[in-house]
Amino acid sequence: MDYKSEYQSKLKSADEAVKVVKSGDWVDYAWCVNTPEALDKALAKRTDELKDVKVRGGILFHIPAIFEREDAGEHFCWNSWHMSGVERKLIDRGCAYYAPIRYSELPVYYRTSIEPSDVVMMQVAPMDQHGYFNFGPSASHLMAACEGAKHIIVEVNENMPRCLGGYESEIHISKVEAIVEGDNPPLGELPAAVEPSEIDKKVAEMIVKEIPDGACLQLGIGGMPNAVGSLIAQSDLKDLGVHTEMYVDAFVDIAKAGKITGAKKSTGRFRQTYAFGAGTKKLYDYLDDNPGCLSAPVDFTNDVRVISQLDNFISINNAVDVDLYGQVNAESAGTRHISGAGGQMDFVMGAYLSNGGKSFICLSSTFTKKDGTVSSRIRPTLANGSVVTDTRPQVHYLVTEYGMVNLKGSSAWERAEKIISVAHPDFRDELIKEAEAMHIWRRSNK
Q1: DSSP readout, 66-112?
Q2: Which has fewest Cβ within 10 Å: 38, 91, 269, 339?
Q3: CATH class belonging to 3-181
Q4: Does residue 227 contact residue 199 with C-beta atoms inside 8 Å?
Q5: What single-letter DSSP state applies at residue 212?
Q6: High-pLDDT (> 90) share of the chain, %
Q7: CA distance 411 to 310
Q8: Predicted local confidence at residue 438, as pLDDT
């Protein structure tokens, strides 16, 4: 097969390619760094022609062109698998909504539950000699999204890294209807990690002490997981492995410090496994054509059964707040949506089931509001409308700058006492009063 000839026959301008989109269609914008650029701008030109176009995607780095107009919500509706700050702004405008998911199940949703996409359009790496377009650092669920689609359009970006995988990490030209060559914009980047705060460092120090040689790591996004990563890179730990949902800059630092070999992994040995990656250019350059990294679909990376088979699995994730029952909210501030469930539940459960595994939920004990008021992140009950990301039986270790507690198997009064012990001292008496009123307080001998 002459793939170069087929390529030329399918090559179209962005304006021509997006003509397949009709009013009422479901259009998939892929995910994260694969979100289309040239195709998005071309579709925006057709705004006045279109109504009720429902777009799927997630983790936007900037507002898509289709939403730049004030009346965009009359024409397009954004449906996000995971929110970024950009998408929160779109929610405020009334043209975006979060789709609650268990991220590990997302490929199955595409295959069995949700309405198939009429059009999938995404940025990909340039075609290789065998006719494949690589998904870059986002194997995640993209093949599942393509399988049921009526039209698949790829936008080639020469800056997209070619990320090696086991399966479902690329799409063949034979399955593609149209090819668009964009302007090769740089990939969207997350802000580089800032110097960890003193609170971040205290939390990180407690967690790193619990990590043995040969452990397999999962890091969430945010200041505290990044602080843990920085401390690991400076530690004496060795033979670490990586099996994570999101590949972040901290892993690059740990790997370049010689701490990661993957020699102790039972699955994906010697390779750092991830569902998607997002960070700075340093990360994208590191992942490019790197045989030490494995780009894999999320129904593999986040499968509790797979995670639990990896000995000494260490899962480290953030939270917005936690209540005295041990319920963890990592998604919203009351009814205001912030992020998404992602794979936190899967890794919390999988790590605990792992031989020697540990799951850590970390947060600062307080936060400061815009008016300067200091509030506790540990609350009697979650705020009205807040989302429970991890139910109370799931949480293993809870960590703040005031300590680390293991909540597994604790009765209601024991867990209330443990949780209050890591709250900021200024709020403990008030929390005790609330716990008494809730009938979950029984002062022990401590």
Answers
A1: GG-STTGGGTEEEEESS--HHHHHHHHTTSEEE----GGGHHHIIII
A2: 269
A3: alpha beta
A4: no
A5: P
A6: 87
A7: 29
A8: 96
Task: Report the residue count for the chain.
Answer: 446
Alpha carbon separation from 294 to 130, 268, 301, 355 (Å, rounded): 20, 8, 10, 23
> Tokens standing for 296?
């894999």
Q: Give SS3 for 174.
A: helix
**Which residue has tokens 């009205």?**
384
Amino acid type, 158? E
Q: At what angle do helices 425-437 and 412-421 cross, to 10 degrees?
A: 160
In eight-state DSSP terms, residue 197 is: P
Could you give the CA distance from residue 407 to residue 415 in angstroms, rounded to a whole number? 6
Tens digits of residue pLDDT in 188-215: 998 877 788 899 889 999 999 999 999 9
Q: Which of 446, 436, 418, 435 is nearest to 379 (CA)?
A: 435
Contact present, 388 and 355 (Cβ < 8 Å)? no
Catalytic residue among 168, 245, 401, 417: 245
Count Cβ atoms within 10 A of the Cβ of residue 89 and give its class: 0-12 exposed, 13-18 middle, 19 or more buried. Answer: middle
Residue 336, CA distances (Å) to 32, 243, 320, 375 in order: 22, 31, 12, 17
Question: Does the active-site annotation cover 434?
Answer: no
- CB count within 10 Å of CB 421 equals 16
- Residue-wise pLDDT tens digits, 319-330: 999 999 999 999
Read out DSSP for 108-144? Answer: HIIIIISPPPSEEEEEEPPP-TTSEEE-TT--BTHHH
Helix residue ranges, H only, 111-248: 142-147, 198-208, 223-233
- Residue 184 CA: distances (Å) to CA of 37, 39, 159, 418: 9, 12, 6, 52
Q: How many CB atoms lie under 10 A from the CB of residue 383?
A: 15
- Report if pTM > 0.85: yes
Residues of the chain with CATH 3.40.1080.10: 3-181
Mean pLDDT, to the nearest integer, of 65-76? 96
Among left, alpha and beta (phi > 0; psi -120 to 50; other), residue 381 is beta
Q: Pull the structure tokens for residue 246.
A: 């999101």
Q: Which residues, 6 or more positions from 180, have their beta carbon under 8 angstroms from its beta carbon?
A: 11, 12, 13, 14, 17, 38, 39, 153, 154, 155, 156
CA distances for 322 relative to 106, 129, 243, 387, angstroms: 26, 52, 26, 11
Biggest distance spanned by C-alpha atoms of the chain: 79
Q: What does DSSP assign to residue 343? A: T
Give CATH 3.40.1080.20 domain extents, the chain: 198-437
CATH of 198-437, one of 1.10.8.60, 1.10.1740.10, 3.40.1080.20, 2.40.50.140: 3.40.1080.20
